[in-house]
Amino acid sequence: NSGSSWNNCDFETNLCEVLPEFNLQPGWIRRNGQSGMGPPYSDHNGNETAYFLSLSSEMQSSSAALRTNVFLPTDEHVCQIRFHYWVSHMSGTLMVGLQKHSEDTVTNIWQVSGELRNQWNVNTITINSTEKYEVIFLGMVETQRKGESVAIDDITFSEGC
């Protein structure tokens, strides 16, 4: 599924068209495994110098949202979003939410918390919407004990998004 039809955000550079303001979201920071901030110590490919997003460990307890551009309705093509994620096993949670244009609330469409193994995983979500919408990645950590983290890498968006 990788190819020119997928819009890929790998965070190696700051620029990512679909997540235009991710640098402005408090809580998410772009870093690599050598940053000295605890796990993960590499990106999902095992590269210590490659960049990903993780929750900043400076906050005592935190949640941080990562919001996409506004996407048009999914008429003939569904929108598929594939992403790699790391959720530490004690108190990390990652949610993906859908906010439709006519609604104030965010609908939770996927969630993971307390992964038993500290490792990168991959997931694909599929979105159907008859109206404009945004997708929100919400990371949360309850405590900032050493080693507690939530991270995201390589978010790809299909043509239908």
UniProtKB/TrEMBL annotation:
Q: Which Pfam families match?
A: MAM
Q: Which domain of life is it from?
A: Eukaryota
Task: Give the record's GO CC terms.
Answer: membrane
What region holds the MAM domain?
Answer: 7-161
The family database entries (PROSITE patterns) matched by this protein are listed as: MAM_2 (PS50060)
Q: What is this protein called?
A: MALR1 protein
Q: Which organism is it from?
A: Cettia cetti
